[in-house]
Amino acid sequence: MLISRLFQSLKPVRDYKTTIDMDPKSFIYKVGNKIVRHSDWYNNQVWGGASKFWYGSQFGLDIVNLGSGAGVHAFCYEGLPEKGANWALGPQSLVHDFNILKNYFSYIREGGIVIITVCPFSGLFSQYGKSHNFKYYSFLHPATILNFEEEERLKALRLKENPLKEMPIFGVKQTLKEGIRIVKRSLRPMRTADIEVSARRTMEGWKKQFEIHDLAVSPTHQHRQEIRSRRETLMEMIVFCKERSLHPYIIIPVMHESLSSMFPEKFKEMYMDSLTDNSGAPVLDYMNDSMNNSEEYFSTALFLNRSGANIFTRKVINDIKNMEKNRLTQPSGGKILDISTMPVSFRKAA
Fold it and tell me: How many angstroms separate the CA atoms of 240 and 143, rounded?
C-alpha cells in the first residue's frame, strides 16, 4: 500500500522536462514533499485529516457527515450512488463541526442530508490546545477559528506549502516509521483480544479525560452545564440546516460490543439523551447495531475499518431514505430510534 502511494505521488514529477529544468535540491524537495503529503502521519497526525478540504469540494452533494474521530471512521461514500463527503475531523467538538458547516454548507444541494455524528461524550467539553486548533488555519475562514492567532496561521501555511523544508528530519523519520507500521499491520490481522484491549484503553482514556469514575452516577454540576451548552450548539446547527433547506439527522455510530457493553443505560439517558432529545432532528442510534459483534468490520473498538464504514454508510443512507419516504421524521422534535429494534420491513439490509 505504501509503495503504491509513493509511486502515485511521484507520477507528476517523473517526466524528463520537469527533471531537467530543476536543480537537484529543488527536485529533492519537490519529490520529498509529495511523498510526505501522501503519508498518513502528515495528513492525520499533523493536520488531523484537514487536508481533504484543501483541494476543493464537489458541489451538489447529496449527503455529508460531521463529527469527531468516530465520524471520520464511520462513513465512507466510495462506490455509492449518492454524492457524499466526510467532513468529520478528529478530535473535534460540536462547536468546530458547526464552524465547518458554516464554511462549506453551500456545497450541499438543496434538500441534502447533514449527518451530525454524536458519541457518548459529545456533550462534554474537551480541553484542546494550540496543536489541536492548528489544522483549522489551513481551511477555515479566520473569523470562525477559535482563539485565532496570526502567527499560528502563517506557521500553518508554511507547513502546508513546504512540509519537508519546515521539518526535514522529523518528516523523513516519520514517513519511514509509517512504512514499517503498515507492513507489520498487514502481517497481523485484528483479533478479538486486540479489540477487547482497545475497548479497555478507550474507556480508561475517556474516564481520565472527563474525570468520570462511575458511568452510572449522575453528572456533576459542571458536566450538566457543559451538556446544556453543547445542546444549544446542536440546536443552533439544526436550525441553521433547516433555514437553508437541508435535512439534519443525528447519528450515533456503531461501536464494538466490547466497548458499547461498558455503557449502562442510565449513562445514555443522562449524558446522551439529554443532549439530543427534542433537539429538532431525528436521532438514529446504532450503538448496539448487529455489526457490533463482528471484528472484521473494526480497526479498533471505537473505529470501523474501510470495509465496515462502507457497509455502515449504506445502512444509514437506506434508513434515512426510508424515514423520509415514510414520513417518520419529526421536524418539530426529534425522537431517538434504536435501529437495532426496527422491524426488517423498515430497515432494508445493506
Answer: 18
CA–CA separation, 137 and 149 (whole Å): 9
Q: Which three cell numbers stand for residue 97?
A: 463541526
What CATH topology corresponds to 53-127+192-341? Answer: Rossmann fold (3.40.50)
Task: Please tell me the number of Cα atoms within 13 Å of 270 on its side-chain side.
Answer: 16
**Is the Cβ–Cβ distance between 210 and 91 less than 8 Å?**
no
Confirm if 64 and 114 have CB atoms less than 8 A apart.
yes
The sign of the dihedral angle between the CA atoms of 66, 72, 74, 80 is positive
Q: For residues 248 and 237, is the Cβ–Cβ distance under 8 A? A: yes
In the structure grid, which three cell numbers stand for residue 289, read together?
447495531
Read off the pTM.
0.81
What are the extents of the domains in the chain?
Answer: 53-127+192-341
Q: What are the DSSP E strand ranges found in 22-68?
A: 61-65
pLDDT averages per 10-residue partition of the chain, 350 residues: 46 47 65 70 79 86 96 96 94 93 96 97 84 89 91 90 66 59 57 83 95 95 96 97 97 96 96 94 94 92 96 96 70 44 34
